[in-house]
Amino acid sequence: MPKPLQSKRLKAREGSSKDIEHEPEPKPELSSSTSITKPQRNVRRGLRGALQSLPEMPLDILIEVLCRSRPLDLLHIARTTKAFRNLLMARSSAYIWKESRMNVEGLPEPFPGMSEPVFASLCFEPICTLCFKSGIQNVIWEFRARLCNSCKSTRTKNPLALLVDVDTVDFVLPHMSAHLSTKRIYGETLVLDSEVTEIMGAWKRQVDVEARTKFLEEGKARVKELEAHAARCRLWFSHTKTERAEEIEAMKRRRYEEVSRRLKEMGYEEDVLWVDKQRFLTDSVRLKMLPAVRQMQPLTERGWQKIQQEVVCHVMTKIRPRRLKSEYMESLRQRFVLYRQAMATFARPYRNVFPSTRELARLPDFKAILDPSVNKQEPTIDIYQALEPKIPDIVANWKAEVKEKLDEYLKNAMDDLPPDISLDNLVFAQMFRCHNCHSVFQNLDYLIAIHECRRRFPTAGGYYSQDSMYDSTLDILGMCVWKPSRFSTSSPSALRVLEACGKDRLATVQELDQLNPRLTCKKIDCQSLGTETIYNWRDAVAHVMRRAGYGGPSCELEVISSEKVLKLGPLDQAVERENENTVTLQRVWYCSHCEEHNKPKDDIVSHLKDIHGIDMPSDADLFPDPDRTVLNSIVYVVQDSYKERVELLTSPVLKALETGRACV
Questions:
Q1: Within the chain, what is the greatest distance between any pair of CA atoms?
Q2: What pTM was estimated for this model as a whole?
Q3: Which CA distances in Å does 613 have to 348, 555, 594, 600?
Q4: Residues 416, 418, 419, CA angle at the centre, nearest 5°?
Q5: Which of 275, 317, 395, 499 is such that its CA lies 20 to 30 A from the CA of 662?
């Protein structure tokens, strides 16, 4: 063997023997008078373990071992002793690093001018190249360096700011695009300060145009080659990170499977299977995201003993309650299908003036049928039909409750009312505006209690108390609790109409219907161009309520003269015909004998004839949905000056002229 290698082998042995410290001799035992005695621990220092005999190997075997190692292992070995450092950092040992690099699949060659150890450190060690800060995972391959955020901000510059006197030098600088400020939407081009100094020095040494042109061409070729090499390195690095992530995920998955197996053996199989099927659980609930479970280490018997209590506690406190509620809700959801059908059948004789399915579900009789914790058997239609004799009393009690709440709400809205006064026929207690859809309607036959927003806006107005799982599960029905506070009363608006009509605030509906006043609003914002809008008292109250609800200016109502009222007879007849046709064509009709609904009147009539054999249906056989047939009686009088200029009128007025609801 050549002499230099023998000397290196001897130096390696001598250096390793000096660097390795022997175990310290045990201290003499303490006398019996010593109050505290502790067992002595053997303290090991230096190179111990599986590779402790590595320095003593023959050189040929040692080199074979090193060639079969990975580059990161060589870096670690080179830092153990000076002898290994001298061996691995010698130029003659470059072949060892090359052989080691070949052990990493797909790893490209080092950049031109970069040694194998430096390239290995760049690829495998998460250390900032400039300040040696640890934990830097990303590599900037164009710079052939890892940079922490601090160095990226202080040791890089924008080439346009540094080389303003040279327009083309930035093309020969290795550069990258990065976000150094959160205020920037797009990244800016950056170069290393050291590269700038080197390139600027070389640029200044080029004295003539030909030399500078050649310098730029060579620099561009060098940068192009560097970018191509960086792309290969980036591809390998990305592939390596992906493989490592998959490997880590596989180890975590095997650990989770082992935890699941042990939980199933302990009797938690239903909980484990349920949580695996859920897609929309938070990470704090998922068993696989528990820190004790989401680890790479294989689960041993000793490790299971350490985490068993934590895992079981997680299952019992976070997974099982959710599983039980989910199963409870699914059972209740299936029961609600038949329940809705039965309630629709019960509601038809009452023309949909009926409590909501949510309100009925809270009654004891229905809860005893629906609640799976009370009734273990699946309900049938016969069970609901047995409750049909109780429906009239249920509806009567519901109407009484609605009236009581509504009267209290109205009395709070109007001050100084006589204590025993009945609000049923008072004008100010008739009209309401929904806070959700802003529709205005008269409360005829408890229309306020069956308004469609209890279905369209199920969260409006709050819910019942959710003290039990059954109460909280009623959200599935999609119905909100009826509350009068979801509506605005017509008290202020009705008082304006009564004042314009010369009536006091306690005027009744019968008095105004007998008087039949026709009103118009003189506010310029409320009038169409060249048109006077005429309201009856109900439409006038609705008009004022809408203006107030949208924050518009207060209205200026005025009763029109009796001469004008006489001219409105044909217009009122046209309104009646149009409203009748509108209701007939609207898809709001119900069959009183089956579930057919939301059809035009003619379709329901044909249905009654074909299905039920009723040739001449009466009002008892079909009915419109009262909540969706709110109409108006507004008419228009066009000024004489616009008789020849009808094209200037608004679309509603032009349509009213066609239907006969407007005159000139």
A1: 133
A2: 0.63
A3: 19, 53, 13, 19
A4: 110
A5: 499
Tell me the pLDDT tens digit for each residue of 188-217. 677 788 887 888 788 788 878 888 888 888
Query: Can you give the pLDDT at residue 232?
Result: 93
**What letter does residue 553 receive in the DSSP assignment?**
P
DSSP of 17-32: HHHSPPPPPPPPPPPT
* Residue 370 tokens, joined: 């629906």
d(CA 119, CA 109): 9
Region 280-291: mean pLDDT is 90
3-state SS class at 459: coil
Contact indicator for 452, 641 with CB cutoff of 8 Å: no
Contact between residue 545 and residue 488 where contact means Cβ atoms under 8 Å apart: yes
Q: State the first-to-last Cα distance of the chain, in angstroms, to the nearest integer.
A: 124
- Residue 69 — very low, low, confident or very high, per pLDDT cuts 50/70/90? very high
Closest CA to 329 of 468, 454, 459: 468
CB distance 465 to 472 below 8 Å: no
Secondary structure of residue 599 in the 3-state scheme = strand
Structure tokens at 112: 């031109």
Alpha helices in 103-156 (DSSP H): 116-124, 149-154
Q: Which residue has the tokens 């049909």?
A: 388
Q: Are 490 and 541 in contact (CB under 8 A)?
A: yes
